[in-house]
Design brief:
Protein name: Flavin reductase family protein
Number of domains: 1
Radius of gyration: 18 Å
Order of helices and strands: EEHEEEEEHEHEEEEEE
Keywords: Oxidoreductase
Shape: globular
Number of strands: 14
Strand content: 35-45%
Pfam family, one: Flavin_Reduct
Number of helices: 3
Enzyme class: oxidoreductase
EC number: 1.-.-.-
CATH superfamily: Electron Transport, Fmn-binding Protein, Chain A
Length: 177
């Protein structure tokens, strides 16, 4: 990343690119979610899941959400074929769960991860603040990622009381009063 500085101001300008984007978004606190998808026959029936901080509410009517996933992700083949996904909003007590689903090569659904098959066969994680089951309605190409748009079809918005888990400056964090 090339940075220029104008000594007459406090303004610094960096060339656009991946490092500028990463550097800027390290300063942006985001909620942490885990996205899961049931594994179909083409994937040996193994579910997939990953940690996401790109979750966004898109529309209330119809109820739509979106999230981004890298096409190089080990979860992408399952998510690319899934008709339904699970969205899990994590609490501050779930840093290890978030780390497990962010870890490359981990068996994310092995103990100590606790989960059950929910509506549409979507893996539902235990102990989350809220969960949603969503029908995938679109996958939009966006660079080396896809933006998945999905319609909420079921869920529990009060699965557990607690404070949300946040991701900021490359670490999982909790809210402070």
């Amino acid at each position: 990343m090339t940075v220029t500085h104008d000594p007459g101001t406090d303004a610094r300008t960096a060339e656009a690119g991946p490092e500028l984007l990463r550097s800027a978004f390290r300063r942006h606190a985001a909620g942490v979610a885990v996205i899961t998808a049931p594994g179909g026959p083409a994937h040996g029936g193994r579910p997939a899941g990953f940690t996401a901080s790109s979750l966004a509410s898109v529309s209330a009517e119809p109820p739509l959400i979106s999230f981004g996933i890298g096409t190089g992700s080990s979860s992408w083949p399952v998510v690319s074929a899934a008709t339904h996904v699970g969205v899990h909003l994590l609490g501050e007590h779930q840093q290890e769960l978030a780390a497990t689903f962010a870890r490359s090569g981990a068996d994310r659904f092995a103990p100590p991860t606790r989960w059950t098959a929910g509506p549409e066969g979507v893996p539902l994680l235990d102990g989350v603040l809220a969960w949603l089951v969503c029908r995938v309605v679109g996958r939009v190409p966006a660079g080396d990622h896809r933006i998945v748009i999905a319609e909420v079809v079921a869920g529990d918005a009060a699965a557990r009381e607690g404070r949300p888990l946040l991701y900021h400056h490359g670490r999982f964090n909790a809210l402070r009063d």
